[in-house]
């Protein structure tokens, strides 16, 4: 069968050619695939990105005037990024920044100049073009002095000017030309100066970022990063086990950590600053308007049991709404020990000897839902029945801002000083339902003066004292119950070399930098 | 024949329009809006309201309906309220994964279901029949997501033979098939159960018919009797239910896509529900229905082809 | 006359048909378990005990324990209540809505029938799970809402069946007789048509209960089911999925429970259909 033999040879040749082509295409590429716990990005426009997944995708693509050191979020160690150096006026109201020369934007959008910085900061400060405009309310004007010099003037002093200019939230600098050109499309096709640039966005599936050949700190070691959206814990775990993923966002539970540690070739990163889990009491919903009821709930919660459920490796104690490792955090606050008997007595005093019922919504996202299910059980033991509706994460965020819930469990991390948390959660202007609402779910309004004074206080000792007083009052009035801090948990193949030591980061994920490498 | 096809398609349009209208208005009964979903958990009330204005969610409902119909006719399925990108491109990207799965499942079902149905019919009340019937009962009693989990556990975790995530690269045929295998097998097993039962029952009916006895009496070889006469007639009612089964398949694909993380329409739909992205939900459901209609139409046409007794009206 | 023969058929079915007897016993057991679950459960299904988090099956916990240390056996026993309540109530809902609809369409014919057919077509174009999804997306989660969601999805299917049966019964002599006597349509439909189509509908009813149980599990699995911490088999499978590599029993047992319940209803339906086969096609 001569024909048959020739056919066979042809087939073998075809297959070998195919294999060669296939392997040469991928042989030298250095790629890292990361799986994150989200179903999709909200926005790649850095002035709108607020969820973990947004940060993970945005951070490799942008820089700020200044930046946190890669391994440390200590605001006192901020270092130059796009700006080489800066000057500050005596009254702290005028800041002049001198930009690096020769910083190139992605994809041929030109060199970074003061015009871009002015444009970017004005965009960040504008409600219509930024979700973080409130951070820049004290910014009066931004002036271009020359091609590489920018001058910022503030209306009043703020706790940390450098803080709002770092590689975080509004501080990311965008390309003026790109934003003007792309308009709304900038959200899915952003242009920045970072070590990586956007290559592909497949909605609900992944984002692919490719190396930016003209990055000012030198070309990144990786050719490509792939960030996969995998909200399902089991899918993420399977993909990692099978080697389809190199870095995986974990569940913040001991079980997960133990499980993953057993997979050969795995390094588990547990890092800070972690997110605070705080239970906010909506004081407009009866019977939470009664201090005794709130105190009863405080006593009914067994924080040790909760932390045991989540696991010792991933949790840290939290006694105040502001964590100790934030600037201004204190532990000198009233503490409510676990005492169900006392809780029941307080409830009886308040007129609820048999307890009562409350309805609320909770997100299906495990970081919120699982601790809340524990809380639900603990409250049930003292007669308080929580009826919880599990809804989607985005719907949850929308509903709680409509004043639906009597109790709101909020998990978040913010810039590590006391002001952002105090302002967003306990300042009267932030009360939900008002035009300037942020996230004051409790409707608390008794520490406005302390917050305002601390903001403009230049003596750091006095500032910390004011912040400490504010925290004391929050707990005295039993407005919000700090549960614990959960740290970020990531699993990583040992052949991934991050290029820096992962200790803590505001981007909440194992960020890929230009120094990250793959050693296979 | 073509005229009949065109007439059937036109007949379908008013129903499709009714489906579309129903979905449109039903979805707008939902209280609440996704503006916060788009802006994230950090934004102020004002930013939220501004976004609602931008998306036209505050216009009177009839105007929204009119715009919706006009856009639909031009092939514009609207913009997702979350990503703010055209839904048609997202659907176009997701569609092949769902179609692959539905067709794959159906092919497996037909490939294994028809022979099984025939065998169990021919060997009625003997061991192969009992086994076949129990297995098919098991198949239709198994929730598809459970079966998917079991298959995944055995064939992808315990024995790492198959991938667990994604749909693979569409342009690369081997990757596409490799990622299709387990999900299609999941639905295929269930389809096999349904189809074999259907084939068995209609074969049994046909085998009792007069013309079969006549054929046998004529002395025709048994195989000819079965394949030439009985089977063809038994397949006719089977074809009619394939349309319904396709609908079951499409429904089953939703959960299968979630288990195997296939980026298809079903997964898109569930996420749209969870995210309150009702523009995306509306569009995906419309496309889903359109395909169900399409499959029913194809089934109808197949039926007229196969059944010599039907005349084109 | 007609009603008696239907009953006779049912009794004969179970006397002669082993499969449906087995199915009936199994389904009966499931129903009994659902009823007495509160009394036979070894533990409170929502009581948490961190000391047995993810415990494998043992004497103390025959089906293991979940992430909160809740006993799986108790949760599966209690979960049967949700599945059965939803399964049966949603089918009853669909029958209450669908049977009159189908009967009226089939009996009256003409324009009314076209309307009914159109309605059926529109809603049948949605796979059940998807229509259920849509309805729940609007109403939110909750037991009653799931019953309504699945009931609405099943209504057109039952209506179509009722219509078909009505059509085949329409020409019978006793209908003609009643009409000749001058009985009005309503009376005819409820006194004569309904009893004669009830046999087929009962058979399909059991089948749809099986389907409804699977749909409820599917919706719970997606996360649109009953509120936690109420146990539901579908939600239990979903929660167990995260622990598939370290505690597979958490997903496997609830799945078996669904399978067994559904299997038993399918057995009954099969048995019923076997006996009346030639009459039920259509």
State the main characteristics.
heterotrimer, A: 520 residues, alpha+beta, nine-stranded mixed sheet, four-stranded antiparallel sheet, 19 strands, 30% helix, 22% strand, B: 313 residues, mainly alpha, 12 helices, globular
Q: What is shown here, in short?
A:
The complex is a heterotrimer of chains A (520), B (313) and C (282). Chain B has 313 residues and is mostly helical.
Overview of the structural elements:
By secondary structure, chain A is α+β, with helices and mostly antiparallel strands. In chain A, 30% of the residues lie in helices and 22% in strands. In chain A, the strands form five sheets. In chain A, strands 1, 8, 9, 10, 11, 12, 13, 16 and 17 form a nine-stranded mixed sheet that branches. A four-stranded antiparallel sheet of chain A has the order 4-5-7-6, with helices on one face. In chain A, α12 packs antiparallel against α13 and α13 runs antiparallel to α14. Chain A is globular. The model of chain A has no long low-confidence stretch (mean pLDDT 86). Chain B is mainly alpha-helical. Helices cover 78% and strands 0% of the residues of chain B. Chain B has twelve helices and no strands. About 2% of the residues of chain B have low confidence. With 282 residues, chain C is mostly helical. In chain C, 77% of the residues lie in helices and 0% in strands. Chain C contains eleven helices and no strands. At the A-B interface, α5 and α11 of A face α2, α3, α7 and α11 of B.
Mean pLDDT of chain B: 78
Question: Percent range for helical residues of chain B?
Answer: over 70%
Largest sheet data of chain C: none
Question: What amount of the residues of chain C lies in strands?
Answer: under 5%
Q: Using DSSP, what is the number of strands of chain C? A: 0
Structure annotation, total helices of chain B: 12
The topology string of helices and strands of chain C comes to: HHHHHHHHHHH
Tell me which protein chains meet in the greatest interface and how many residues each side has: A-B, 50 and 43 residues
How many runs of DSSP E, i.e. beta strands of chain B? 0
Low-confidence stretches of chain C: 278-282
**Number of helical runs of chain C?**
11
Report the C-alpha radius of gyration of chain B, rounded: 24 Å
Termini Cα gap of chain B: 10 Å
Strand content of chain B: under 5%
Note poorly predicted spans of chain B: 37-42
Q: Give me the Rg of chain C, rounded.
A: 22 Å
User: Which oligomeric state applies?
Assistant: heterotrimer
The shape of chain C is: elongated
Summing up helix and strand content along with how strands pair, one would put the structural category of chain C as: mainly alpha
Tell me, what's the shape of chain B? globular
